Amino acid sequence: MSKESDFYQVYEVFSRRGNKAPMQHQFSLLAPNREMAMIMAQENFMRREEVIDVWVVKQSDIRKMTSEERQHMTNRIDNKEYRTTKGYGYLRQKWKEKEQGMLDEKEIMSWKEVKKR
Amino acid sequence: MERGEEKMSHVVETAELAKQDATYLQALTELLFQLGDDDLLIAFRGSEWLGLAPHVEEDVAYSSITQNTMGHAVMYYNLLEELGIGKADILAHDRKPQERRNGIYIEKRNGEGNYLDEPYYDWALAVVRNYFYETFKKIKLEAVANSSYKPLANVARKVLMEHPYHLAHWKLWIKQLSNSTEEAKKRIQDRVKEAWEEFEDVLELGKHANDIRSFGLVSIGEEEMKDRWLDEVKSVLADVPEGSLGKKYGNGRNGEHTQDLEQAIQTLAEVYNSDKTAAW
Amino acid sequence: MYNYVEDGDSKTTAYVEHDKAKYDAFMARIEAGEKIEADDWMPEDYRMALIKLISMHGISEIMGALPEKEWVPKAPTLRRKLGIMAKVQDEMGHGQLLLRVAEDLMKPYGKTRENLMEDLLNGDLKFHNVFHMPTKTWADAGMVGWLVDGAAIISQTNMLDASYGPYQRALQRICQEEVFHAQHGESIIMALAEGNEYQRDILQESLNRWWPSLLMFFGPASAETTGSSKQDIMIKYKIRKSTNEELRQAFLTKYMPRVFSLGLTVPDETIRYDEEEEKWIYKQPNWDEFKQIIRNNGPRSKERLRLREIAYENNRWVRQALATEPVSV
């Protein structure tokens, strides 16, 4: 015999605003199973927001960082400029001397349009 | 029928044009009242449930459906307003029971007591009624989506856009409860049996059914609506009552109603009636 | 809508000395503006204060839906019916958000939403004083939306930087929706204030009736008034920033000019803003009555609890039915 308290399972709710947006955590709700969680999710948390997709995940199925992990595994030394454009900023001046522009993020992201031939 | 068939392909673009044929206007008005009154009444019953659902999350979700549904009623009343029948708010608040065209099962009280005091509301009734109604609504809307009256066809297509959530919601509830404890199964079955004796007029088009059909205001007639509804319901519920559907308390499409509708109108128009001239 | 009010009956767990190092680290985190999460170490009195605060806040939203809900089916136009339904739905939604936050805090004690509902019904969990009051006319629906929600917005925005992360995130959502609530309430009030004599009469009558409740909304100014106040611990732990009286003053400053601009009066002929002291001087409400109200001895306490109880008991079969293995569909 199941207990009434089993009706209250915690589901985490995620949604996406648009095609270019990532899945975003919204909140959590109580539901007896995942189909019920799904049918409640949108109206509980996205009544006024744009939404194109919804995920529900049973909270107990998520491996979350523990409190300790959050405090000890999320820190980094600030010495990783080689990983980012910040470490290559001197190129701007170099290219300028050669009368060339810098291929920065703005420039490269603009390359999605290639001239039609 | 003949005259109607002749007119079936004839699309009526505006309210002004619809008003030029008195028979057409009457059939259209009847149909719009059916659509508007059904949605208003079931939304009214939903609004009484607010705050009393089995758990908070369901309360919130159910209320969205109720709001959407009342929003649909508003769209039909606005069409009636355009046709010169009366202001939408007056149509919703200030018509006598015999002028109302909702199916009788739709006006049924939510259970014993009332929403302010000792509301022994029955979730099984809510689930069965809403599932039956939303299943029917889809069939009727699809029949109206190609209506000869263009403004109505446009509204029906819009309503169809947000209707799938409503149907999915109640279908899930009825499926899950029908597959759970013995108690829940029995409660659902009892309400299904009760609905079987009362639901028939919901599926009908009233005394102007022939005109409604022959003018092409709907693309299928009431017999086909009934068949489609039965097929759908039988595909979801393991056992439905034997025998045909009934209209135990009469035909709401023809203005026959119960005490429950009087209670509903009294409540929904209480403030409106306190001063009809006021701007609220 | 909410404020933390203390009835003087509660006991808090004494802070345990041997957690000093953890305690200092915790205090350093909140001093630095970090947010505490549900599974972080926290002092027992912080957890207890949060549980009490948030469960009361959450249950007050749920109970707060009831007085307004009375007017949902009765609202005078289709537009008003829709507006107030959406508003009351939001209140239930706020209850949902807050109960979830409280439930996660109670998890170490093995308590769930079921326990919260039971605590409410047996009187252990209190709900906010304003929701023990009757809503007698349509004007009350407007008054709750305008001034009661206005007071709630003052107290909730004051906690938008709360040190407890989940609460602070719930409040962000809630306060965003409150903007709609504020305008919803103003819209009802505006129509009445600019309406006919009958409408203006029910509006003034409503304000007269709600006035003491509005003053009581923020709780007593200090412990001396009712014998106890937990506001100090809330400020120490950076859950909220201001005292009850500071919030009440902010409310009066924001809303009194609006009240007067509509040609309304309040039932306190002595109320005035003292330029020198830079504060509102007003007649104190009856704080003994306040204590009675929040102990579930208010005018509508029993009826509201009874409604909640019926809804809870009457639907038990549904929760039992679906507590079984998930049904595939």
Task: Please characterize this protein's 3D structure.
The complex is a heterotrimer of chains A (117), B (280) and C (329). Chain A has 117 residues and is α+β, with helices and mostly antiparallel strands. Chain A is built from four helices and three strands. The model of chain A has no long low-confidence stretch (mean pLDDT 94). With 280 residues, chain B is mainly α. A two-stranded antiparallel sheet of chain B has the order 1-2. In chain B, strand 1 and strand 2 form a beta hairpin. In chain B, helix 7 packs antiparallel against helix 8. By secondary structure, chain C is mainly α. Chain C has one domain (17-315): Ferritin, core subunit, four-helix bundle (Ferritin, Up-down Bundle), CATH 1.20.1260.10. Helix content of chain C is 62%, strand content 2%. Chain C is built from 13 helices and two strands; from the N terminus they run ααααααααααββααα. Residues 6-14 of chain C have low confidence and may be disordered. Chains in contact: A-B, A-C, B-C. At the B-C interface, helix 3, helix 4, helix 5, strand 2 and helix 8 of B face helix 2, helix 3, helix 12 and helix 13 of C.
Radius of gyration of chain C: 20 Å
Number of helices of chain C: 13
Tally of DSSP helical segments of chain B: 13
Strand content of chain C: under 5%
The CATH topology label of chain C is Ferritin
The low-confidence parts of chain C are 6-14
- Which runs of chain B of at least 5 residues are low in confidence (pLDDT < 50)? 1-6
- Tell me about the largest β-sheet of chain B: 2 strands, antiparallel
State the main characteristics.
heterotrimer; B: 280 residues; mainly alpha; Ferritin; two-stranded antiparallel ribbon; globular; disordered N terminus; C: 329 residues; 13 helices; 2 strands
Provide a short characterization of the protein structure.
By secondary structure, chain A is α+β, with helices and mostly antiparallel strands.
Describe the protein's topology.
The complex is a heterotrimer of chains A (117), B (280) and C (329).
Chain A: E1 9-16, E2 24-31, H1 34-45, E3 53-58, H2 67-72, H3 91-97, H4 105-109
Chain B: H1 2-7, H2 15-18, H3 22-49, H4 56-82, H5 88-93, H6 104-107, E1 111-114, E2 117-121, H7 123-144, H8 150-178, H9 182-198, H10 209-214, H11 222-236, H12 259-268, H13 270-274
Antiparallel strand pairs in B: 1-2
Helix pairs in contact in B: 3-4, 4-8, 7-8, 7-9, 7-11
Chain C: H1 20-31, H2 44-69, H3 78-106, H4 113-121, H5 138-157, H6 165-193, H7 197-216, H8 223-226, H9 231-236, H10 244-261, E1 272-274, E2 279-281, H11 287-297, H12 301-314, H13 316-322
Antiparallel strand pairs in C: 1-2
Helix pairs in contact in C: 2-3, 3-6, 5-6, 5-7, 5-10, 6-7
